[in-house]
Description:
Largest sheet: none
Oligomer: single chain
Amino acid sequence: MSPSRAKLVGTLSPVLAVVAAGALGSCLVLVIGESPWEVVRVMVGGVLGTPDGIGAVLFSATTLSLTGLSVAFAFRAGLFNIGAEGQLLVGAFLATLTALAFPGWPALVLVPVCVLAAAAGGAVWGAIPGLLRARLGVHEVINTIMMNFVAAGLTSYLTVHVFKEPGQGIPQTSQIPEAARLAKLGELGLPVPVSSPANATLFLALLVTGLAAWILYRTPLGFEIRALGLGARAARTAGLPTAATVVVTMAFAGALAGLAGVNDVLGFRYRFLDGFSAGIGFLGIAVALLGRARMSGVIAAAFLFGVLNAGAVEVDLFTDVPRDLVLVVQAAVLLFVVAADELFRRVLSGWGRAGSVA
């Protein structure tokens, strides 16, 4: 496929996927007996028409952008990182332990150290599958899925049996010190209520998005990553260090997912709550696919899914449509974006053959 047609596919596929998923959701709403237009009005008006709603969208989109970036970055090397969920958990847990271990440190030191701990935890959890893929040829999909189970079990055990808050029945750690907490967007003067969970992790997400784009398109490592994604055999033939690139790519992808844990631990709950992620790491896969594994596309897709997540609460409260319907729409977006890719490829390939015959 020519570059121009590939660009056309990249533009049309996400649009078609969102439209198709919206159409499916509308049909399901009609079956329930509600008006699709009323559901859309409640969802959009509730989340984008109020400061509280905007704050909820930004909070959700921040986590989704980081997990989506994690998956997208690995995609560029031809790797499928299914482990963002586990990497997020490990990053959040280590950030919490770091904050609890050094309560007397000043904020200017403690916050960056906690953020680095989250990135380091995610990087290690991503590098292990990368190393197994590079050295033993074990596929990263299997590795990262298993690492998710290990991360969930390990953090759950440590939270419940070692670091659980004394006298508390809920499986959570003690609160982190004030010095380790990130400022809320409302506290920074932005038009979001102080009570909103949206916090300064949003700026961290935008910063690492720029960093990831710079690495991919402005550094030798980025060239090696993109070359590996275009063809591992060709990259090896060209003398590129493909094994090392796999490990580094997976480590960086893991670090991005680990940073997603900062949003909840340092910016919202101020503690590690067992099972807080609730599958949001897996939703990063849909964000990456809808964003076409491009940094700017991931941010846009994360915002869309943030609207859906925040709007699900409004729909559940003010209509008879269950919030689980939003999960169906999100899953449909993932399904349709893959189907749309194949559809456009076949149609454009058919046009190309017809043009050649003519």
